[in-house]
Structure prediction request, 121 residues.
Amino acid sequence: MKNLILILALLPISVIYGQEASNNNSNSKPDYSLDKYVNNLEYIKAESIGGEIDFEKMLVGYGSKDAKYKTHLYAISMWTQVVNDLGINKKKEIVKLWEEIYKKKMTTDEKNAVSQGLSQN
Prediction:
């Protein structure tokens, strides 16, 4: 009987907090770990290779070489969305930033992935 009362007492609390958590995530942008960086540009440069916004490390291991290349392009698209969320909205600026970080020129496919990432926001 005590267990039933306890369960009935805790049920409304879990329902209320569960709804509150889901409501907070519906229209908000992701929460990036910006607190240890001076500005968004510093964050992007520091976290793009091996960090919080290195989406290639999340998407590896899909088999064939073509799949890996497509994953690479998708990772660039996802990275572009984050960079756009952080205030860099022009394709030329994003391409220049990516080339500065990765120290190589973007291919046409990679630039197309940037365009795709910008169109997703």
Residues 2-26 form the longest helix (25 residues).
